[in-house]
Every structure is written in structure tokens, then in C-alpha cells.
Amino acid sequence: MKKIGLLTSGGDAPGMNAAIRAVVRKCFYHHIVPIGIYNGFDGLIKGNMKRMELGSVGDIIHRGGTILYSARSKEFMTKEGKLLAVNQLRKHEIDGLVVIGGDGSLKGAQSLVELGIPTIGIPATIDNDLARVDRTIGFDTSLNTVIEAIDKIRDTATSHERTYVIEVMGRNAGDIALYAGLAGGAESIIIPEIETTMEEVVCRLKNGQERGKKHSIIVLAEGVAEGFKYGRKIEELSGLETRVTVLGYIQRGGTPTATDRVLASILGGKAVDLLLEGEKSKIVTMWKNELIPQDYEVVLQEKHEVDEYLYHLSKQLSI
Length: 319
Ligand code: F6P
Fold this sequence. Notes:
By secondary structure, the chain is an alpha/beta fold. The chain has two domains: about 5-140 and about 255-300, 3-Layer(aba) Sandwich (Rossmann fold); about 140-250, Phosphofructokinase domain (Rossmann fold), CATH 3.40.50. About 45% of the residues lie in helices and about 20% in strands. It has eleven helices and eleven strands. The chain has helices at about 15-30, 40-45, 80-90, 105-115, 140-160, 175-185, 200-210, 225-240, 260-275, 295-300, 310-315; strands at about 5-10, 35, 50, 95-100, 120-125, 165-170, 190, 215-220, 240-245, 280-285, 290-295. A seven-stranded mixed sheet has the order 3-2-1-4-5-10-11, with helices on both faces. Strands 7-8-6-9 form a four-stranded parallel sheet, sandwiched between helices. Strand 4 (about 95-100), helix 4 (about 105-115) and strand 5 form a beta-alpha-beta unit. Bound molecules: 6-O-phosphono-beta-D-fructofuranose (F6P).
């Protein structure tokens, strides 16, 4: 192994830069040439890549986003696109690839393995929606952004004695809503994995009001409903003044937390070690607190399970 390529793909996540730094520095440590591929699989197809230097990853560990840029490539979804990507890798004599991204990107990485390219995946997405992965890179930072927002909204919710619906990201998964809702003391947490009827939410609001609660926070995962529609319905059914905040893309940016930086450094370093050991096809994960390389099939085909214990706990604690 003389040359390793790396790219970031899909929705960016805080900590991707720390992972890039770890891959590049680990390559230098082992006297391997790291090649940065820009704009994800789109850039790979176009041959948009350049040799990374030691200094090119200096001063990025604390930055959100990705210095390699990212994309959701439609062309790479086609057979022709994948073959073009493989040709580029061969043309540039890249012996192995590291792909940093969420489930779509890791599926892309798997398809390159099937075409003969040794490829190691690193899970990075704010959604935390992968099976057999404790935490994806970016989830912790995103969570902290959401909690900060909930705390601020709580101040104004108390002053005006209102109900607030806060819509958070997560695509089809409820982890951001669940963890942020629990940590932010939300009265109700609405996630795609566990059905909660509007009647139940309204009942909880009314009970709270009868006991003298001055405000309520409902954290809604985007995979369940649109925040504004949901909020309107809650207001209609409960008669309580309701406001809505859609947090949106602020959840994807910002300085990565220490947890995300450490995770990204561990996974990035291990990805290079695995390629050097001759591994051709793995996703590198922390699973049950252990650093474990796992098969693509296992991580990508199994369903991510929501932590039902946390969900029920949050209900018990927010009566
Ligand atoms: O996967 C990360 C994510 O931010 C999801 O939470 C969200 O649904 C989606 O990406 C938004 O995608 P885009 O950046 O393409 O608008």
C-alpha cells in the first residue's frame, strides 16, 4: 500500500475534519501518500484530487464542515458512474480508499469494494442512524447544538407561558430528538420509531397545565411530521398558545465537541491501520465501547434500534 485516497460524502457532520486529519497524519506516520478527493464521489468520478501534505490538515481539528467538501452524487448511483470512479482510482494508482460519511456514502463505499477497491468506511452523520454503531461522528456536537437551543427556547417559553414545538433533524431516525429531548427536559418527544398520538401529547400538556406548569417543550423529529403543521394541530386540539421552531442546518455546523474529535481521531487512525494490515472491506466502528471493524453488510443491512429505555425514561421524568 503506497497511496491512500480519502473523501467525505453526504451530509457533512462536525468532526469530519478531525477524521480527515487523523487519516492524513496516520498516512504520514506510515510513509504512505494520502490523496484528498474533493466533493465526495462526484469529485472521484471527475478525478478532482490532490496529494495532501502534513500541513494541509493543520488547524482543522476544531472546525466544523469538511475541508474536502461534500456532495450527494447522483452520477455515482449509476453503474457507469461507479466504473468511472474505479478508473480514476486505478489511473492515480490509489491502492485503498477511506470513505467518511453516513449510510448512503457507506453503501457507495461498499459498491467500490465489490468492484475490487479496498475501501474502509468511517461512520459520520449527525443522524446516528446506523446499526451496531454506538455513535456516529457529528451526533454529539449536533446534540449539544440542539440542547443549547432548547435551553434558550425554554427561557422565552417560561416568560410567555407558551407551548413550543422544536423540530430537529435525523432523517428517518429519532436519536437526535430522543437524546436532546431527554437532556433538554422536554415534556414530549416525538420520534418515528415509537408512535405517539396527538391526543396523548395534548393530554400530557393539559395534565402539566393543571399541575401548574407554565410552559411545555415538545421535541419533534423531522421524520414524523413538519413542525409547523404539527404545532398548528397541537394548538387546535389543546387550545394552548403554541409556537414552532425548526432548527434546520445549524444542527450540522459548529465546532466539534471533544467527544466527536476523539471519536474521529480513533476511527480515522484505525482506518489506515486496517488498510495497511491488508483489510479490504470494513466499516470501522465503536460498538459497545470497543473499537471494532465490522462488515458492511452487518452495519448497513440491519436496522438501527432506538433506545426504548431512554424513551420511556424521558416520559417518566417529564410528568
Ligand atoms: O443526514 C444528515 C441530514 O442533515 C438529515 O438529518 C437531513 O434530513 C438531511 O441530511 C438533509 O439533507 P440535505 O443536506 O441534502 O438537505
